[in-house]
Amino acid sequence: MMTCALCHRPAPAEIDAAIDDGWIPSYYCGRQQMPGPVCPDCCKKHLRIGKDGEWETIAPPADAHRWN
């Protein structure tokens, strides 16, 4: 089972359903691509769309998995 990389919320089993629900496959922390998926709530709380159109952290965290 896939879970959110930041809060460990279970992701929908179907990939299309996850995308439709607002889940994203990955994000960037600085120049490093981080693995996902990331749930819609964590996207709102911790991420933004950067100048290049990619999801990125609002502020680079010391330890992203401890945010929630």
Description:
By secondary structure, the chain is an alpha+beta fold. It has one domain. Helix content is 19%, strand content 28%. The protein has two helices and four strands, in the order αββαββ. It has helices at 15-20, 40-46, and strands at residues 24-29, 32-38, 47-49, 55-57. Strands 1-2 form a two-stranded antiparallel sheet. A hairpin with a 2-residue loop joins β1 and β2 (32-38). It is globular. The model has no long low-confidence stretch (mean pLDDT 87).
Give a summary of the structure in a few sentences.
The chain is α+β, with helices and mostly antiparallel strands and 68 residues long. 19% of the residues lie in helices and 28% in strands.
Percentage of residues assigned to helices: 10-25%
Strand order of the largest sheet: 1-2
State the separation between the terminal residues, measured CA to CA. 20 Å
Overall pLDDT score: 87
Q: Please tally the β strands and state the result.
A: 4
Percentage of residues in strands: 25-35%
Low-confidence stretches: none
Q: SSE order in H/E notation?
A: HEEHEE
Q: What overall form do the CA principal axes indicate?
A: globular
Largest sheet report: 2 strands, antiparallel
**Rg measurement, Å:** 11 Å
The total count of helices amounts to: 2
Number of domains: 1
